[in-house]
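Batch manifest, entry 17 of 40.
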Amino acid sequence: MASAELQGKYQKLAQEYSKLRAQNQVLKKGVVDEQANSAALKEQLKMKDQSLRKLQQEMDSLTFRNLQLAKRVELLQDELAVSEPRGKKNKKSGESSSQLSQEQKSVFDEDLQKKIEENERLHIQFFEADEQHKHVEAELRSRLATLEMEAAQHQAVVDGLTRKYMETIEKLQNDKAKLEVKSQTLEKEAKECRLRTEECQLQLKNLHEDLSGRLEESLSIISEKVPFNDTKYSQYNALNVPLHNRRHQLKMRDIAGQALAFVQDLVTALLNFHTYTEQRIQIFPIDSAIDTISPLNQKFSQYLHENASYVRPLEEGMLHLFESITEDTVTVLETTVKLKTFSEHLTSYICFLRKILPYQLKSLEEECESSLCTSALRARNLELSQDMRKMTAVFEKLQTYIGLLALPSTEPDGLLRTNYSSVLTNVGAALHGFHDVMKDISKHYNQKATIEHELPTATQKLITTNDCILSSVVALTNGAGKIASFFSNNVDYFIASLSYGPKAASGFISPLSAECMLQYKKKAAAYMKALRKPLLESVPYEEALANRRVLLSSTESREGLAQQVQQSLEKISKLEQEKEHWMLEAQLAKIKLEKENQRIADKLKSTSIGQGVGPAQENPTGVNAGGQEEASTKAVLEPIHSTSLIGILTRTSDNEVPDVESREDLIKNHYMARIVELTSQLQLADSKSVHFYAECRALSKRLALAEKSKEALTEEMKVAGQNISRLQDELTTTKRSYEDQLSMMSDHLCSMNETLSKQREEIDTLKMSSKGNSKKNKSR
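Output type: structure tokens
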């Protein structure tokens, strides 16, 4: 496979190389054509320069001719000026000569006019030729610049293509070398594989012979011993006990425990919400302590008072479902019979919600109609009424899907197995919808409470009740969010665990077959437990021989052992008699203690009565006597504290008058306090041990994960080292190729600079020649 991939890669690279080579040839042709065009333009420029020079020479000759004619005209004009005064003197004599001079003058004037017109025409032609020359020169220069830029671009493209070709050639060479190495290694592996295939063929022959013999033996045993194949029919196969998956059961019990905790939180939040809503109805908008509330609110309060009878069964149903999932059972939808009871409890609670919903909506409308209700509070009440409708609808939707999930445990045809996954996903969506509705209720009720607190007639009782309702709504929102996230996190596991059932079957056919399977499972577990009874501990053979020698060598006889047994029995009977005697003594002491306590109580009553009679007589002597008596009783009843290992005991002075509490009561109280203290210490130690066990378990998991990550990192380090070495090799090869390319590019740039310098020199010469020609034209 690797060689085929490399050959395909090599063919692709060869095709790309051929394409690039064809493009290079086209570009070379384009460069050559552009060079030929530039040469033709240069020749045209030379021809134009030659024609310009010819025109300049003609212009020079014409200017010279014009100068000669101008001098001749001046001379003629001077002669005319000289001849005019002479003509005045001898007009008469020179009429004939004047006629001749006028004819000559007219001839000269015509000739001069012709020369002037020719001169103007030549000037116009010269100006047009000069303008045309400048325009042609500018066009040729711009074209030359564009051609130079195009030539530079083409050269850059050619350089890039050559560089690319060199890189591709180097890559192909490297790939070729690698392919050669790989081909060698593949040849070696092919040789080894051939040897292995020969060995495997020999092993396959041996295994085939062995398995054929075993198959014949097993077929004969099956035909003789097995009466029928119960896995062939689904009805019989459903009664077979599946393999026990303890991990699956523990996981399901853990999930059920978490769900029970979430449901308990939700139940407490619902109870608080309904109870505080009932309290609010009694307060707002009319306080029941001041005036009677409306009959609607009275009925609504009566229904809300019954909320515990509908909400508490949800927790009980979930608890029964949790208790039904044990380590020994098989937990699938066909065996979770307690889910039906939870669904029934949820149905009863939804009936309760449907019953209170109209009263709740009417109560909110009554609040809106009261004079204390503002427009903002009316808007919040309308939003809350819509939220309550949504909450009831969400609970109905949730109950529908939970009822569908409870059908496989009661009615086998109620829900197809292919629809389990869709029902579970819809349950998750319904829980998320419940969470969204509770968030809206929390938001709107918070706004409603803030508006009501700002009212001037808001009492402290209403404020505290609103705070309690808000706390219960927040608890409901948090509980709904936890349940929704918990279910969405475990829905994949629920869908995957649906395939847990009998071997080679689609699942349990009916709840009756599932119940029978569980009974068979219990019987099989009891049978296995009976088989795995621990054997009695036996004495090792060497120890038994040593004991036998001791018994044989001992001098004790059977009679001595019988006497010892008789003595021990007599001692046991005496101890039992002493036990009965001390039990009777303890009962008598208890009776005496009760009598003594009663006597002390009677004495204390009599002393209290005597102290009450003394001040009633209002006699100073009696007062003194009473004071002396009090002092004596104080002296007598003054307690003396003594400390011991039991604790602090109180005893009286010499007369030994008992205090309110006797010594036995103090001892009893001390021991009770000590027991409570020890139990608290024991509970603290148990909690600490559980905490330490959880920490140790977490640390062990973290240690295992760290070891796995360490192994993964070591493998990544190895791969990274190999990649680094490979990249270093590639870097060295690329450095060499780049150095060669740079040397070639430097040579090419030198040649390009030389050609550019030559072109610049030619342009400078053309500029100098054009400047000289323009100067000559100006001077002329």
